Amino acid sequence: xxxxxxxxxxxxxxxxxxxxxxxxxxxxxxxxxxxxxxxxxxxxxxxxxxxxxxxxxxxxxxxxxxxxxxxxxxxxxxxxxxxxxxxxxxxxxxxxxxxxxxxxxxxxxxxxxxxxxxxxxxxxxxxxxxxxxxxxxxxxxxxxxxxxxxxxxxxxxxxxxxxxxxxxxxxxxxxxxxxxxxxxxxxxxxxxxxxxxxxxxxxxxxxxxxxxxxxxxxxxxxxxxxxxxxxxxxx
Length: 235
Ligand SMILES: [Zn+2]
Hints:
Organism: Perilla frutescens var. hirtella (Perilla citriodora)
Strand order of the largest sheet: 9-6-12-10-11
Helix content: 10-25%
Main location: plastid
Oligomer: single chain
Bound molecules: zinc ion
Strand content: 25-35%
Region (Disordered): 1-25
Pfam family, one: YgbB
EC number: 4.6.1.12
Number of helices: 5
């Protein structure tokens, strides 16, 4: 899904505990490989002031119009927890990519990007833990530049934002829900790639998979979903 283009105007996001305000570039969950994302910097204030200042320079990429976004209240807590959820339709004629691994199947995710339900979900969990807008706001699927994008780009950006905010991954627990194909032969490859993208030790990255008991779209092989919970801790 996404084709790179240059960002027109600088991005500035500032929040305070009193009057939070933020301006994000229109950004979507599916990004091109050579795409350079806007740089957002998190500057922690002294502990007496819990407000976090986020300043992004859009020297890059995203080329979207700045828009009013959700205020961030990224208080410097010792721990922050985040939850992510994603679901995609499965349609014939698309590759099935899960966690960056191409899984042989008779159908794949119809999506603006590469439709990697697991990576989207993990990105959303990290962004959520940081108190940032979700992946759909940062990388809008209405933007043609994200068409066919490799979701690893979103992961790289989420991990970068996490480190800039002064946090690192404590642990991650993800659950994939799909009726077919069986994921057990691919689980370790998916988990290994997830660890690589996160820069995390395998002992803190857990991946589970289950069916949907043949009910609803998930159980009828018409969709795939994922849930992720992450715990971040302050460096
Ligand atoms: Zn998605």
